[in-house]
Each structure stands twice: as structure tokens, then as C-alpha cells.
Amino acid sequence: MTADDLLEAAAVPLMRKTIELALSGDRVSLRYCLDRLARSKATRPVPFTLPEVNAPEDHPKATRALLEAVASGALHSEDAAARAKLLDAHVQAMTLQSFVDRLEYLEARQGQ
């Protein structure tokens, strides 16, 4: 067994002990538990459906949906920023594919 395997096998008892120590006043354990709680809440997935983005022209509708979700409190700004990055990458990929398609079309026409 590797060290990771051993730790994984002991994960539940270790967490129980850490929580027990935190509840009894151990400051290091308490800080660890509170940090884990805050981090897990911040990284928890939030269900949110973007409008379909099938072409670069759909990008503004999707970013508007992100902005409205942040403004209404349905989505945290950091989560929206991460989704916007993914959206931007998707739009860049579609734009690149569009250029490739046009170039192939022009090359095919030129070869006729």
C-alpha cells in the first residue's frame, strides 16, 4: 500500500478525530475545520443553465445571463467569472473553426 492509500483508508477516522479536537477547543483543528467548511461551500457547484451557444453571435446572451445571475445573487461572481472563461474559450474555438472552414472553402474554390 502507498502512503496515499493508507491515508485514504483512514480518512473518516482522521476527520472524526480532527472534528473532536476542534470541538474540544484545539485551535489548529478548529481553524482547519472552519477553513474546510468555507472552502467546500465556495467550491460547491451551483446549478445554472447558460443559453445555448452555437455561434459567436450567441455569446452576448450567455454573458448577459451570467451578469443577471450575479446581480440577482443566484451565482457568486467568482463562479460566474470561471464560467465566463469557459464560455470565452468555447467562442474562440467556434471562431477558429469558422476561419478554418472559410479557408478550406476558399482553397477548394481556388483549386477548381
Describe the structure.
- With 112 residues, the chain is an all-alpha fold.
- 75% of the residues lie in helices and 0% in strands.
- The protein has helices at residues 3-9, 11-23, 27-42, 59-72, 77-110.
- The radius of gyration is 24 Å and the shape is elongated.
- The relative contact order is 0.07.
- The mean pLDDT is 89.
Summarize the entry for a quick read.
Helix content is 75%, strand content 0%.
Structural class call reads mainly alpha
Q: First CA to last CA: what distance?
A: 65 Å
Q: Rounded to an integer, what's the Rg over CA atoms?
A: 24 Å
Number of strands: 0
**H/E series:** HHHHH
Compute the number of helices: 5
Q: What share of the residues lie within helices?
A: over 70%
Coarse morphology: elongated
Mean pLDDT: 89
Low-confidence segments: none
List keywords for this structure.
112 residues, 5 helices, elongated, mainly alpha
Layout of SSEs?
Elements: H1 3-9, H2 11-23, H3 27-42, H4 59-72, H5 77-110
Helix pairs in contact: 2-3, 4-5
